[in-house]
Amino acid sequence: MSHQAMNGFGGKVLTLENMNPNVRKVEYAVRGAIVQRAVQIEKELKEGVKKPFTEVIKANIGDAHAMGQKPITFFRQVRHLLSAF
Q1: Residues 18-70: pLDDT tens digits?
Q2: Which string of DSSP letters, residue by residue, matches the chain?
Q3: Which domain holds residue 28?
Q4: What pTM, to 2 d.p., does this model score?
């Protein structure tokens, strides 16, 4: 069966063979080179090294609350109220 018949769209199908090789090489590295550099910069800041910033914000894991975003409690409360009905 052809890719067109299988996907129902009749267009091109993304496969590992036709995917950009750089996309295949992507890694999810929670402790990768960027995080290691961030830790190094934090250490330098603690040692008094002058930088154009005073802190490192770790945004590598998508934790918005760790970056200072307030919890979205109002929306959660409304959703909870609506789900009660």
Answers
A1: 999 999 988 877 778 888 899 999 999 999 999 999 999 877 667 777 777 78
A2: --HHHHHSS-S----TTTS-HHHHT----TTSHHHHHHHHHHHHHHTT---S-S-----TT--GGGGTPPP-HHHHHHHHHHHT-
A3: 3-83
A4: 0.47
Q: Which amino acid is at 69?
A: Q
Query: What sign has the CA pseudo-torsion 23, 24, 26, 30?
Result: positive
How long a stretch of residues is the chain?
85
pLDDT top residue among 84 and 19: 19
Calpha distance 5→16 (Å, rounded): 19
Report residue 40 as tokens: 């190094």
Please tell me the total count of domains within the chain: 1
State how far the Cα of 78 lies from the Cα of 85, in Å rounded to an integer. Answer: 12
Tell me if 41 sits within 8 A of 31, measured CB to CB. Answer: no
